[in-house]
Amino acid sequence: MITFDGVTKRYADGTVAVDHLSLEVPTGEITVFVGPSGCGKTTSLRMINRMIDATEGRILLDGVDVKTIDPPTLRRGIGYVIQQAGLFPHRKIVDNVATVPHLLGWDRKKARDRAMELLERVGLDLKLADRYPFQLSGGQQQRVGVARALAADPPVLLMDEPFSAVDPIVRASLQEELLRLQAELNKTIVFVTHDIDEAVKLGDRVAVLRVGGHLAQLDAPSTLLARPADDFVREFLGRDRGIRRLSFVTDEGVRLRTDLTVPASAEISSVRDTAEPWLAVVDEENRPLGWVSVKDLPESGTLADARPAPYGTFVRGRDSLRAALDATLLSPSRSAIAVDDSGRVEGVATREALDEALDKVAGGAGA
Ligand SMILES: Nc1ncnc2c1ncn2[C@@H]1O[C@H](COP(=O)(O)OP(=O)(O)O)[C@@H](O)[C@H]1O
Ligand SMILES: [Mg+2]
């Protein structure tokens, strides 16, 4: 655990970058520091590994004041990743990663093996290992930066806007990769970003900072979105806070109807008199084929002949309420098809059922 205990940083010119910050970063979790530019995120992060020393207050690492640990020893247990990866330009990728194990006294072969293993772990094509940093894309360089930070297997990882300089698609895949890695590694991670979407996606807990390094709120993303502490946080979360909140609500409260699905082999004549305007057609393995509009069905034949129209699905028990709502927008029936992990239909979530689930969420938020 990392503890900030009344930490203040006053720079030589009198700027108070961080003002009496107190918070805890739990072991094995991702804690995100988010806030506008200049609010003291980088300063706070660098005080942990003593690249910057606090003016007042204490930072404790598992109860030990970092000021009592000499910086090289301290940093051996703390990986550090920055925006432009910060790779050594004249060293090959593999050597960039092997540098730290090498410094720890590992022999060349062992250090290199470890580097290759890590490069693979962060999802880098090993063909790139013998290239130089300038020969890699920004996203690939960031992966190398993460691999290098993990090289000494430190329990703590500090990440300062590591994905901010890459395009949105690459950023999303780097974020996924980090979550996947973290599920295996359980590092204590402090992740700095100015991007609230990134914060709520990655953080087990999110600390919203305002200028001057003041802590505005520290909560789990779902709580943050449901109950912002004040106007500053509310504004920072943005206007689509309500929709984004639904990403953290499971679909399990959504009632499913099982009477709206019909097999493709069924005769059209058997469904023509139903009162339902839309039916979901499934194949013999109970996988969705799409929607048919009952009033537009052909004269005869089976439902397969009716050429079912596109559909949206969500995975029952895994996807969020937001995913279920999104699926309705992709369906002409405005209902979403719920499938299990193997893609088989469990039922249909109608707009009425989703409205009921939304009412429960709104009722529980008190906002
Ligand atoms: N070396 C420095 N000397 C003086 N002021 C600084 C220095 N580094 C940062 N600052 C100021 O401290 C404040 C916080 O900076 P920083 O921690 O970099 O914020 P963030 O990472 O949230 O953008 C800003 O006002 C910044 O201008
Ligand atoms: Mg910064």
Please tell me about this protein's structure:
With 367 residues, this protein is α/β, with parallel strands linked by helices. 32% of the residues lie in helices and 23% in strands. It folds into 2 domains: 2-238, Rossmann fold (3-Layer(aba) Sandwich); 261-363, CBS-domain, CATH 3.10.580.10. The protein is built from 12 helices and 16 strands. The chain has a 6-stranded mixed beta sheet with strand order 6-7-8-3-9-10, sandwiched between helices. Helix 3 (93-103) packs across helix 4. The chain is elongated. It starts with a strand and ends with a helix. Residues 11, 13, 15, 17, 37-43 line the site of adenosine-5'-diphosphate. Adenosine-5'-diphosphate is lined by residues 11, 13, 15, 17, 37-43.
Blueprint (SSEs and pairs):
Layout: E1 2-10, E2 16-25, E3 30-34, H1 41-48, E4 56-61, E5 64-65, H2 71-76, E6 78-81, H3 93-103, H4 108-121, H5 138-150, E7 156-160, H6 168-185, E8 188-193, H7 196-202, E9 205-210, E10 214-219, H8 221-226, H9 231-237, H10 241-245, E11 261-263, E12 278-282, E13 288-293, E14 313-315, H11 321-329, E15 336-339, E16 345-349, H12 351-365
Parallel strand pairs: 3-8, 3-9, 6-7, 7-8, 11-12, 14-15
Antiparallel strand pairs: 1-2, 1-4, 4-5, 9-10, 12-13, 15-16
In short:
By secondary structure, the chain is of the alpha/beta class. It has twelve helices and 16 strands.
Q: Which consecutive residue ranges, at least 5 long each, have pLDDT under 50?
A: none
- CATH architecture assignment of the largest domain: 3-Layer(aba) Sandwich
Topology as a string of helices (H) and strands (E): EEEHEEHEHHHEHEHEEHHHEEEEHEEH
> Average pLDDT across residues?
92
**Helical proportion?**
25-40%
How many independent structural domains? Answer: 2
Sheet/helix structural class: alpha/beta
Number of helices: 12
Instruction: Quote the CATH topology of the largest domain.
Output: Rossmann fold
Radius of gyration: 26 Å
Q: CA-to-CA gap between the ends?
A: 33 Å
Q: Main sheet: which strands, in order across?
A: 6-7-8-3-9-10
In one word, what is the shape? elongated
Query: In the CATH hierarchy, what is the superfamily of the largest domain?
Result: P-loop containing nucleotide triphosphate hydrolases
Q: What hetero molecules are in the model?
A: adenosine-5'-diphosphate, magnesium ion
Query: Strand fraction band?
Result: 15-25%
